[in-house]
Amino acid sequence: MSEEAGGPPNGLRPLSPELVAILAEVHRHFLQFLKRALGSAADAEDVMQQFYLRVLLKSADVRRQTSTRIWLRRVLMSVLNDDRRRTARRRRAEADFARKEAALPPTEEELDAFICMCLHKLLPVLKPEYAEVLRLVDLEEIPRAAVAGRLGLSLNATTVRLHRARHAMRRALELTCEMCPVHGYLDCSCDYTKRRRLNQTRAEGRRL
After folding, report:
1. pLDDT mean for each 10 residues of the chain (208 residues)
2. Sign of CA dihedral 133, 134, 138, 141
């Protein structure tokens, strides 16, 4: 802190030469203490600035103290505790915001991503011809006419197969999405759901 660089803010009593001398003497020790307490040099500097401002605001109280150094230590601890309380409140607010954000329903883009992942995971349980047409049309977005040529089918036959494949996939998705008692639906990956999903989708795949 430098009195020569403009002095205290307007309306504040200038610090006595004795207090300025003691502040210069204890500055390094106080700053080292704050660095250890906060684990951050930048945070320590911020709290040190708050400490000097508190000293300026409360300097009249020094006259009522038997020891200026004891008073300064009390001011420092008061500022440090205030900073810790502010930090704790901010962290609680951030944690609360994160919990609320996590509880929000997924966006349309997130739902699309979940569904896409589910499709990839469930394709192996479908009949191979159903899995193939879904992969080509719905995942790779190849035009139906081109898919028909690749599969050696007519366009009408390809459309019929795609319809049946989508119906089979819808049923598999419904079974999967209803299965998890922990996370509810979509891309649940808990061990319970993995086991049930594996057994039930295999059984359903044999019936499709």
Report:
1. 45 76 92 92 93 88 75 93 91 80 55 54 81 86 90 91 85 60 46 54 56
2. negative
